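## retry 2 of 3
previous attempt timed out at serialization; input unchanged, resubmitting
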Amino acid sequence: MRHAILQLFFGEAVKEDGKISVLVQPDFDFAMELLQVFGEQNPNLTIHHLFCMNNNEKMVSMRKNYNLSCLQKILPICACGCDYRAWYYYDNVAARLNEFRLFPYLILTEHCALAFSADYQNAILFREETTLRMMREMFEGYLKQSEPLFERLDTVQSQLGYTETLIRHFVASDSPRYFFQRMPCLSGLLTAEMLERHLVKEMPGREQMIRAVAQYAKVMQTQVLDKKTTMFFSEDGIKSFLETGRVDEYPKECYSPLDFDERIALIRRFLALRDRANLRMIRETKERAEHALNISVNANEGYLLFQTRTERLIYLSIREPSILMAFYDYLESMKPEELCTEEEMLGRVEAILYEFVACHSREGSI
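## retry succeeded, writing output
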């Protein structure tokens, strides 16, 4: 059966406009890993994925929230660069996929459909066009009854519009808010002068973007940066910003790197926020991903931001409540030993700035 799945995926992935529809659980590692590989190799591939989210609070997977473990399986495909879309519905997963369900899984391509059992041992392959048409209609009907897991925001304009709306919702809520990212959250400190200097002149909607980012910065500084806000960042993120002059939130092709003095000034302005908001520097560990997700959440909504292998930025609006709360609970309960004290944070950042200036001076004297 695994050979059949491989052949179905391969046959569709090599097409110029291939499309694969799958009704499988994200913990079916064989299928998910294949989809990731083919998605990386074929950016024009479209994948529509429907799966069941668990509504049984007693069920856990490897001692983790089952729905969060589903997200962990899905994110590599989101980041691989193809057009991946996911929908979910609720059920008791243990009952939904028990051995008395005949063929709960389905893979659909242009010319074939494969229905198979929950233990991946038995399957039926369909090729007759009337049957395929019926299955496509059923699958589309299922999608209409399901919820999209994410809202993809693929343009700078849509990203700005979404983040501005989210920040306003954050302000209107009494819930604590958390910004968790490798690099310090610097976009709220960018000035109109910086934007005017560095945004690509030929960029469509350039003036509109300058106004939007400036407005976002104003809202952040006047309404968001208070003691209900906690910003997590890493030492590696500080170094990365100083070395590149780039912030994580915007595509590289939209702007030129910030100047040497601007980089230092932004870091110092960020540190000065500690009197208004909660700044938390994460202790570096080998297990922590170099390009970890950027997460912005409160108790009611949030989003993930990450970079694909092709350096494309993807914003994913978190819609599923249990996943949202899993992120929120994790950030709310970060252990003290995982974070630097304020004294350690200031000492490390000052040491990084000193080394950056010294290195720049040495290079300038050569």
